[in-house]
């Protein structure tokens, strides 16, 4: 049986963080900028969330027919803040998926959480319905830093949730941290890292903050001092060193794990496995066709309705030619697949393998990319090792440049 | 067709400083004489190239024939020859003037006489034209017609008290101008019975008729079937058609005779054969002497033009070929650059001419161009006695073989209000000018004369002049000749490779300053690479300035958005797109804009 991964997008947050440009809407009470928020979903928004979940379930159901012969190896609830969904909702969605897809016994099922939105009751619901991996957004162990970037929780709340999760029995937990925060120096950042490793999670995601256009933090950037590129790279380097000393290896540019705890879902993206995303703006790639759900709520609704009609009419057999137009399917050419194989594969620290390339495409990676690889090895940003190529430490720093070299003219 | 009475012909032009309203007045004259209703008039009929309208300048001479019923009851034929309005086209102006018998001088009632006004008036007087002034823009609140009249009399020495006061824009006083043309401009002389002698003052290429030659018949007559000869180029042909100029169209007639202005076609394939200023005569009954004043037009400014996309080289060649059909003063020959590949070294009359050609290539032919810094023609005298005219800095011989070099010098006249004399003189000194004289035109205005090296004024002199005089200075120049000068070639090395397309010739004393600015500019232009890139300026192998583009430290995307690879790929593609607009020199990718940055060294 072929393998499939499923992503569920929950585009709601109690309040959006100041740096965030992800597709998500604030649904909490209180204003976006004020400090006096209450960790509650505004009553007016409860209905909105409920109808969104209904649409989501429709999409899940109507998308199922083509995947009868696929085994689901991972499910990921991302957002937004999936943990803000009312008790019972996550298990409802998960049950619904199980009803329409073949979910493997040992599937990795992850949910992203904001500590402020979770209590023991929810954690128990998660473990009961089969969620076996938690990804908790901490970002910083320093409350002042958290406030500066508009996080709604403090460190204490995080630690409480983390310990509760352990107590309840979660044995695969990721903690998200961020570097290069406003007014943060290397020592501040290292303190966060130390506190995180003291809790001994199985997995750490360490991202450096990117100031995105049109985010409140970007608009207010003049109020803060941001680390320079050099300082930011130093933070990155120290992250790798420190986490390595504590038993975490870097398996992807921004992800670290204890042996055997790499995120399976994450790796599907880089290794070009099949995945389908459900929900507003969700991205999918199956059998070398990519598509994205609409990012606008009204259009998303129309899209799901259209999907339902087309599925019902054809008794579940979707007609490809029509789908291309209706659902904006983007079939990838072989060259595009090769490009992706390279630039996605290079995000993994083990890099890409010439043998696999040959098995997938029937062509030699060295013949196609030998010159580029030689040049990049010459610059010291790439190394060849037993038929594989991978980024060097310096290569990671300039990985966009390196990856762009693998696009065809 | 009735025999045309020579005494009822008036051949004239309008001369003015730029923006004083020459083309607007021409439009009003055409409108008043009923050739076109004002509804049919597109503003400024005579400036018919899109570019000319946009820039508000006349690039090519235009000519139109108008019938005017004068107050004396007679019908007159006016031939209005509109002249180009820029110093780059001085020679063309002089030939157009030679085709006229008189000139209407338009002076702005607020601004008075400007340097270019003077230059054009003197040019007209040199051609023995009768000049009478009209005062334009009298409806402006700042108009001072009396002051301007006095100024004209004092400075130019022509009668101005009865000058028509007009507003070409609002159609005021146009009738007075028409009457004055009848009264003050003499009828043409010459006899139809003499051997043919016609002055070529312009020509255009038409894909059906071949070259259409614009000419003024001085003596004799020409008709269909006349075998003609161009006296300077030696080209011969048989006339296919003669005619005169309607607004925007050619109107054939039976014959052109002495005193008339019109066109002829003779299946001539190339404007090269019909050089402006040449004399057309009858092959079988030639005139004794050609008309005076013919001059071969030489390019003054050269630059390299390369297609941004190397594959477009043939397109560029075809486009230049087509433009050349209509523009004898455009020169080009193929050249290759290590940095830019295949292109052309092009010669122009001046920087405006260069810009016009560049814009036409980009607009009309859809070409994306990389242009190297414009330079002038230097004379390199070698130790073996040979003299080279250098148009491309890369061809400069080894310094050991050079005895001395010369550069072109122009005589410049700058008209300025007295408060700005200081800053303007300072500017001229900075540009290696040699002071000649200052003449006070009136209490508040002066005419400053300088000899200036041409290479100091081709880039941005005019802009500097305007900014240092708050727009009040006006400027005109003419070639004076060549003078010995201490010149060196400034080379630019990027990552230790010399980039030929960035070399230029500069005076030894300014080499250091220019080199330093150049390096600074390039440092900003060249993106960071994976390695450090030294940028050096060198003269004769000796490094005189250096900057460094630091190595790229960070270019990494921390997060991908829930498997949204399309977003990631777009980012990478953007990076790759940027690469396409780069030129590879050794290991370094140089943006195309860098090659033009030399032009903007004086940007503050």
Ordered list of secondary-structure elements with their pairings:
The complex is a heterodimer of chains A (409) and B (604).
Chain A: E1 2-10, E2 12-13, E3 25-26, E4 28-29, E5 38-41, H1 43-63, E6 70-79, H2 89-100, E7 102-113, H3 120-129, E8 133-139, H4 143-148, H5 155-168, E9 173-179, H6 186-198, E10 203-208, H7 216-219, H8 229-245, E11 249-252, E12 255-257, H9 264-270, E13 275-278, E14 283-286, E15 289-292, H10 297-313, H11 320-326, E16 330-331, H12 334-345, E17 352-353, H13 354-361, H14 365-378, E18 382-385, E19 388-391, H15 393-397, H16 399-404
Parallel strand pairs in A: 1-6, 1-13, 2-3, 6-7, 7-8, 8-9, 9-10
Antiparallel strand pairs in A: 4-5, 10-12, 11-12, 14-15, 15-16, 17-19, 18-19
Chain B: E1 9-16, H1 22-32, H2 50-55, E2 62-69, E3 75-82, H3 90-98, E4 102-108, H4 115-126, E5 130-136, H5 145-156, H6 174-184, E6 197-206, E7 210-219, E8 221-223, E9 227-230, E10 236-238, E11 241-246, E12 249-253, E13 255-257, E14 261-265, E15 279-282, E16 301-307, H7 313-326, E17 331-337, E18 341-348, H8 351-364, E19 369-371, E20 375-376, E21 378-382, E22 387-390, E23 402-417, H9 421-430, E24 434-442, E25 445-453, H10 454-457, H11 461-468, E26 474-485, E27 487-494, E28 497-498, E29 504-507, H12 508-525, E30 533-539, E31 542-549, H13 565-580, E32 582-585, E33 588-591, H14 593-596
What would you say this structure looks like, in words?
The complex is a heterodimer of chains A (409) and B (604). Chain A is of the alpha/beta class and 409 residues long. Chain A has helices at residues 43-63, 89-100, 120-129, 143-148, 155-168, 186-198, 216-219, 229-245, 264-270, 297-313, 320-326, 334-345, 354-361, 365-378, 393-397, 399-404, and strands at residues 2-10, 12-13, 25-26, 28-29, 38-41, 70-79, 102-113, 133-139, 173-179, 203-208, 249-252, 255-257, 275-278, 283-286, 289-292, 330-331, 352-353, 382-385, 388-391. Chain A is built from 16 helices and 19 strands. Chain A has a nine-stranded mixed β-sheet with strand order 11-12-10-9-8-7-6-1-13, sandwiched between helices. In chain A, strand 6 (70-79), helix 2 (89-100) and strand 7 form a beta-alpha-beta unit. The longest helix of chain A is centred in the N-terminal third of the chain and has 21 residues, at 43-63. Chain A is globular, with a radius of gyration of 22 Å. With 604 residues, chain B is of the alpha+beta class. In chain B, 25% of the residues lie in helices and 35% in strands. Chain B has 14 helices and 33 strands. In chain B, strands 10-9-15-6-7-14-11-12 form an eight-stranded antiparallel β-sheet. In chain B, a hairpin with a 2-residue loop joins strand 30 and strand 31 (542-549). In chain B, helix 1 (22-32) packs across helix 6. Chain B starts with 8 loop residues before the first strand and ends in an 8-residue tail after the last helix. Mean pLDDT of chain B is 85; it is low at 37-47. The interface between A and B is medium-sized, with 44 and 26 residues.
